[in-house]
Amino acid sequence: MKSRLILLVLPLFFFGCEAEEDEVTLVGTWTLSEFEEYEEPNCTGTPVSNLDSVTADFGNNITWIFEFTEETVTNTMTLSLSDENLCSMWGGALSGDSCSVEWFGNTMNMPIDSMCFDFGGVLSDGICSVTESNIDDYTTDGDAITITENAGTDSAEVSLGTWSITNNILNITVSDDSSCTSLTLTQ
User: Whole-model pTM?
Assistant: First the structure.
């Protein structure tokens, strides 16, 4: 009788001890590693790598972080430019703390700190630090994601797409009638 009772209870141990899978969630901090845009709504064809373009313009001193809470996503781009790089972006030559730029045959000397300020940054020790941040609302339903920029305003824009996480790599794809954007982020 005891052996029958053990045989009946034994399966309960196996099923009762079964490991629960962790719920996959966007919540957390993610670093953008790829930002591609396609001219087709189904993400086919040859993409344009916007992250490569930004890196080509500003160098490797750029980070783009996405912080997801339960209802919002804050994306923050931070970059640092030396005074030489900032001046050369304008096609100028650095002389002291001024940048000599030629426009339409006229030469102008622009203070580097003013150039950095106009760029939205702060100059300190010859480095222009720029931080740009944006907060959007989002919702998910299964693998579908809805991202709303400027929620609650007349200029609200809604993007629809999909998301997935595999091995701490987050892929988000949003598209409209004419294009598709694919983001790859790592945790």
Answer: 0.76
